[in-house]
């Protein structure tokens, strides 16, 4: 994900910044860090305007939204002259200033090409609730997610292993057992830690000892999310949002993981909670996976948004909310949440690769965890937490729809037989 974002930023600069760029993502996913790093490496000068840190910056956009007037206000305040060729203006936490968002339209249409990059944590929510028009078609929007497992491998200095995983995935070639076990151990560490940059950084700084990480980091992230729920919920009851968010761990712990309103509260229903669910999805805190009854392309045409699964944006936060300990994950025994964690890990990996989530069921007979729309057709994807992969669901699906091939994600080594591609849990990011 970060490599893709870095590449996108470089491309944006090289093609002359025809449109302002906006980076959207949940809080604490590293948006500010990666933008600052890019700006410092590629421009002689940077002006950072953080609307959350300093409320006075909003006044730059009072009155006229003409780029020339805005630039003049910024120049006067910072006592500088902005050269469009070597200066970048970074508008951080832009969701705090609607007029700044609206101004991006005029920057896009300006004859003078200013280098404008913006970022925000609740932009998905804000865009749908703005009192002024969002500059549709005038902004290049990119999405930022928590680290995936491949990025985790890079962070812990396992790039060679990462490259080998890609090679063996492409060749369906099994690792020798000791390497397979090493990769699974790293995967289990990731399952416990999750992909929030601050958590992974703390893990690396503490000698890559899982037991040494500070649980307060996850606490602070979740506390920040709760504060956002209260601050940005507007006409939605923030308590409802919080209840749905906390219910996800129980939703996924069920054998049938379809979202059930009664797990939020006894008399809950769609009418009462659908706006809260929508808020979490737009905020990037929850991932939406609707049911598809007839798996043909485009999958969206058969999407049933009344029957769906809901995942959290980061498996490490799910671990924390569920009170799961490291030994629960490493004991290699089934426990209440192991299936939930595994599915959530796969879901967030797919989403970070811009893959839309869908699942399929056939009454009480079979369920396919995910469906992937690929060039060769719709590929069913079955997820297992262990290496015991016996299941009739995949057989039922294959018999009925005859896909080009199938994917079975599990703790089993690489391989391909009987039309099934075996993908170890540590190689999910390789699936295209």
Describe the overall structure:
This protein has 432 residues and is α/β, with parallel strands linked by helices. It has 16 helices and 14 strands. It has helices spanning 2-14, 31-42, 67-78, 98-109, 123-127, 149-155, 159-171, 177-193, 197-205, 215-232, 238-253, 270-282, 315-321, 326-330, 338-352, 393-401, and strands at 21-25, 45-50, 87-92, 115-120, 140-144, 286-292, 303-312, 360-362, 366-368, 370-374, 377-383, 406-410, 415-417, 420-424. The strands form 4 sheets. It has a 5-stranded parallel β-sheet, with helices on both faces. Strands 10-11-12-14-13 form a 5-stranded mixed β-sheet. Helix 10 (215-232) crosses helix 11. The longest helix has 18 residues, at 215-232. 43% of the residues are buried.
Number of helices, counting only DSSP H or I runs of 4 residues or more: 16
Provide the β-strand percentage band. Answer: 15-25%
Poorly predicted spans:
none
Shape from CA axes? globular
Number of strands: 14
Give me the secondary-structure category: alpha/beta
- The span between the termini is 13 Å
Strand order of the largest sheet: 2-3-4-1-5
The major β-sheet equals: 5 strands, parallel
Q: Percent helix among the residues?
A: 40-55%
Question: Brief description of this entry?
Answer:
The protein is of the alpha/beta class and 432 residues long. The protein contains 16 helices and 14 strands. It starts with a helix and ends in an 8-residue tail after the last strand.
């Amino acid at each position: 994900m970060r490599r893709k974002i870095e590449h996108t930023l470089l491309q944006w600069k090289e093609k002359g910044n025809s449109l302002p760029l906006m980076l959207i993502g949940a809080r604490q996913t590293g948006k500010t860090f990666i933008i600052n790093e890019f700006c410092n490496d590629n421009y002689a000068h940077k002006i950072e305007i953080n609307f959350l840190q300093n409320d006075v910056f909003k006044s730059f956009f009072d009155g006229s939204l003409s780029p020339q007037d805005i630039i003049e206000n910024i120049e006067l305040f910072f006592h500088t002259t902005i050269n469009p060729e070597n200066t970048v203006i970074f508008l951080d936490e832009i969701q705090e200033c609607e007029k700044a968002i609206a101004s991006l339209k005029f920057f896009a249409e300006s004859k003078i090409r200013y280098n404008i990059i913006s970022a925000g944590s609740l932009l998905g929510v804000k865009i749908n609730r703005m009192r002024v028009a969002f500059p549709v078609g005038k902004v290049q929007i990119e999405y930022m997610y928590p680290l995936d497992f491949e990025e985790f491998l890079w962070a812990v200095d396992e790039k060679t292993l990462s490259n080998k995983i890609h090679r063996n995935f492409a060749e369906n070639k099994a690792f020798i057992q000791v390497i397979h076990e090493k990769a699974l151990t790293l995967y289990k560490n990731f399952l416990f830690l999750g992909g929030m940059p601050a958590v992974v950084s703390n893990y690396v700084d503490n000698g890559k000892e899982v037991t040494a990480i500070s649980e307060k980091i996850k606490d602070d992230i979740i506390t920040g999310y709760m504060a956002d729920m209260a601050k940005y919920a507007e006409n939605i009851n923030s308590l409802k949002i919080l209840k749905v968010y906390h219910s996800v761990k129980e939703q996924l712990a069920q054998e049938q993981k379809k979202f059930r309103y009664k797990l939020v509260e006894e008399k809950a229903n769609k009418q009462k909670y659908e706006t809260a669910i929508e808020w979490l999805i737009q905020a990037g805190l929850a991932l939406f996976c609707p049911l598809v009854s007839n798996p043909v392309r485009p999958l969206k045409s058969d999407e049933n948004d009344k029957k769906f699964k809901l995942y959290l944006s980061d498996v490490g936060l799910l671990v924390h909310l569920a009170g799961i300990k490291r030994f629960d994950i490493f004991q290699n025994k089934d426990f209440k949440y192991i299936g939930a964690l595994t599915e959530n890990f796969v879901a967030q990996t797919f989403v970070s690769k811009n893959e839309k989530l869908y699942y399929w069921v056939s009454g009480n007979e079979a369920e396919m965890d995910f469906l992937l729309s690929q060039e060769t057709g719709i590929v069913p994807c079955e997820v297992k937490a262990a290496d015991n992969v016996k299941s009739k669901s995949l057989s039922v699906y294959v018999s009925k729809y005859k896909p080009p091939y199938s994917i079975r994600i599990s703790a089993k080594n690489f391989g391909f037989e009987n039309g099934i591609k075996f993908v170890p849990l540590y190689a999910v990011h390789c699936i295209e």
